[in-house]
User: What shape does this take?
Amino acid sequence: MGGSLLDVGCVQHDANEESNPNWLHGHLYDLADDVLGIDYLESDVERLQEAGYNVVAQNAEQLDLDETFDTVVAGELIEHLSNPGQFLDGVHDHLNPDGQLVLSTPNPWSLHRFYQTFSGEVYCNPEHACWFDERTLRQLLHRHDFEVNSVDYVEPPAWGIRKVLYRSGVKLLASGVFVIIATPTI
Assistant: This one.
């Protein structure tokens, strides 16, 4: 990938994620030449700064940085925001004209979610403000001057019915998360 990259929501709930081998922000340093992370959790940002990461405290809905980026990553963030359109406008302003936005969000149509509904054990992260499916997220991106280049449903990690469905091509029901890559149109 190379180039410059902005990771929005880099803390991922708690700075202790830094020790998790699956921590997204840690992996991004292997992909880009220059990485900056932002998050509104100031004390967690300070802890990550002390650990040597290039991160700053900032609200995703009010992006105000003095630079633009080749790539903006927002891993499972948009469903937490009160004003996702404001966030997308800010991302648009901070992307190079040929840059790309990579965002992921939980898939509300996953078989796992249906099972939870019918079993009466519906789990919803208390920090989530809304759900997005592919159609509504495409519409939101279009309204904020982005063109969707690709949508990918993430393969379930463990073997079971969801992985079998995924490998059989029924990705919408099998995947718990999907990723959209979009580029600015203006």
